[in-house]
Amino acid sequence: MKGHILITGANGFSGRHACKYFNSQGYKVTGLIRGPVEEGLPWFTVTGDLNHPEQIQSIIQRVRPDYVLHLAGKNSVAESWVQPAHYFESNVLGTINLLDALRVFPSCRTLIVGSMLRFEVTEDPAPAHPYALSKTLQQFTAKAWRHLFHQKILLGEPSNLIGPGFSTGICGLLARAIAKFERGEENKPFRLSSSTEERDYLDVRDAVSAYAVILEKGKDGETYSIGSGVLRSLGEIVAAFSQMVPRMLPLEIGDALQAEIPQPVSAQPLKQLGWQPVISFNQSLKDILDFNRSLNSREGE
Question: The whole model's pTM is what?
């Protein structure tokens, strides 16, 4: 066995893939979730809330992890405008509570998974939204915490993650709309802001394998970018899905301009540690579509 890993946010989009992957790689896996304990899984789950320090300290004492993969937190840009304080509480204070509980296990290696949407800290900060502020403060706090308490803390910044599972990203939303269209449940046009907006997309399963490489081989205190290195437009996504279906659902495509000039994500430092993405963009989209086709007509399955 490679060691005991605690994965926060274990019932989320990335968390479920992470539990499955680390279990397959010979780790003892405990997933931290906020809902009821899930039975019948090949790994353990434990219920806990990162906003309750005493509860998290008790869990850490019981689990005694060798590794922690911190995926829990809020991640909706739109929702962050409505509940900015909740985003600070979840993404910043929740991370502090976790790191504080881990102080009694100084040999534990902890990977904090951040966001490419953070902004550079200057004397005149200009975050684009409260979510970006919360993730920037999360990273800043993790680095400062490492300096103060000499814990083994690493940081990862994935690009836009796609893949099978319940996701609120554009690929998942479009695939779900296509599946509903095929089942005759939905016929209204799916709206896209534009066809030219570009992003770096990476399969969540490749991201999870990157997390493992960082935890096993990464340098304490370093921030590792995780991406495909290729920009894909919304038009490319539509074209790829169109090749996978007998008849494409109706679309409304706007002409909005992209707010910022995107850059492909360079994962060169991570590749030097031996990581390579292995799942193609088209395979990711096919798996997303297959997942949504497998759902029944009840929403929120």
Answer: 0.94
